[in-house]
């Protein structure tokens, strides 16, 4: 995650061993380094808390002779050496018991040797002694004229930017086991959350100072993470994680035995129990001075403990450190509602919805039962589902509380919304992004659809104009954390789109607040939940539109615009409910051959399921997405056929037209909707296109061979036939040939084979979608464009 290709020509890796003569490189190479190197950073050591001094002396102490020789040969080179705060028994003892009221440990002060002998018998605990001896050697070298700096560090088992967490570290084992048991031992165990990448940045920056004030530094964030903070941060993510007495935690670990990652560290924990666990919990900062580094680097600051905790937790989830049977994740509907009410500090879910609280508990029960019984979710999957439901419920509670304080919210009128639908999810996203450049259009933003009143409900928005900047919106921080922990992160398709808290968002996130959304099926499988959604002609999905409108009223009350621009492919499943809720809505239907649009969807959903499920299967996933896409486009086609009176409510656009002339195509869309595009809007759109031209090309020119997903194109032709037929009807009726896709007549479609470049032939449609898995895919590329000769014939 940290590697960049430009590093390759700047880094020369020399495999060696600094315990050997000339580092094991040979005298010639060593002398070459002595002449060419300008500065030396020595960070290597054998960090083994269980070895005695005799075993560590050669690696950690005597090896400094070679390092000093490197720095002193031919010319002096500045040395930057990392030591440890663990040379102090007080730090090792977590400042518990007799160390709880001690004076701060100042930079450059050496530990008391008698105290070290008492707590670190050299024949048993040698690591602190090896680092202490090295410090003494370097002090002498500095007195003799060697320029150097010493940096004492705490435990460095994690990183902020990437979340990387050292799996073999004691603190990591403690975190994993705590999540496994749903509890952590309270006491003086809150180690400083000091990420290694922040330490590295400080160290490198300090090394380049020409006129530094100091040469001895403590690179440690002395802030203590308390029991209540850990519980609150976890609860905000929907994780049940409570502090308990050490003995209760130890009993749980012993009962689980070697299956508990912390089990092998129990002897160490028992040895330090009096200081680590039996002391009074510390809430004040650790008594360690770190003023030297901030006197030399006044612009640096430590990241928040919450951000570090979440980054490490999310990395551990994705790396599958946690076990699916962990007790910290609850999947019981009533418990999830109770936890959300407790953490929100509210007790009333939105009124006026069918079924009262059952409006929420019924779909949660169906979803969690299906996720628990029908599929095998990973810990990350269980966590992601629990966190999502937890925040959705809290948001619903916040909505109700604000409605009671401001009744005028529900008097907001949602007039003439523009709703983008179609099978091409990436094209839909581009179209909405383009329309968002028009200041007259109001689009849902990622930060507000996920946190309408902030993560904790404390955000109180002022009535802002639509063009007010988003940078200072306090919800942006929570949105950033959510984006960084999203299972969508790193996908080759979703990474094409802008990823920020103020990016236009699919109103699927709004619809999810009704707990009735197909996106839950896409990410978590949950087949029986999907069947529940489709039962009774999609009655449950249609119920969700009441919550959808209610949510939009809140967002409009916060920040108004001339009209809403929404998008969600699943609207195609319930166009009747959409028009019933928004009678004056206009639907912009972005057409693309569903087979072409299907490939990226399968790729995206498969990559997400790989993280969220232990039994993810690409073929099963792809067939499910094919069936869902067929259901969506065919249901929409049937609705349009059966409701000719609503013909004027639809505006049809093809992805080819949007790619060829995006702004010109949108001007036609505006005219059909009875709108005019201002020069300012047109200029903003072109500016956006020019800034993101490469990403636009990536969005529209992606192609995924369907046979890699176990899909047969013949079966897909038959599955999408109702949509193809309706598309031809629309094209014929509207004379929209340049903007509408063209398919063959009757029961065939036009195809061009790879072996007949430029030639077209007609192929019969296959039997059934149900046999897709048993057929081999033909090697041809499907196109919905007519050849030039066909166009001339039609003229």
Helix content: 40-55%
The rounded distance between the terminal residues' Cα atoms is 56 Å
Mean pLDDT: 86
Please state roughly what percent of the residues sit in beta strands, choosing from under 5%, 5-15%, 15-25%, 25-35%, 35-45% or over 45%. Answer: 5-15%
Q: How does the major sheet shape up?
A: 5 strands, parallel
Rg on CA atoms, Å: 31 Å
Q: What are the defining features of this structure?
A:
single chain; 795 residues; alpha/beta; five-stranded parallel β-sheet; four-stranded parallel β-sheet; elongated; disordered C terminus
What does this structure look like?
The chain is α/β, with parallel strands linked by helices. 47% of the residues lie in helices and 8% in strands. The chain has 33 helices and 14 strands. The strands form four sheets. Strands 8-9-7-10-11 form a five-stranded parallel sheet. β12 (748-753) and β13 (761-764) form a beta hairpin. The longest helix is centred in the C-terminal third of the chain and has 32 residues, at 527-558. It is elongated, with a radius of gyration of 31 Å.
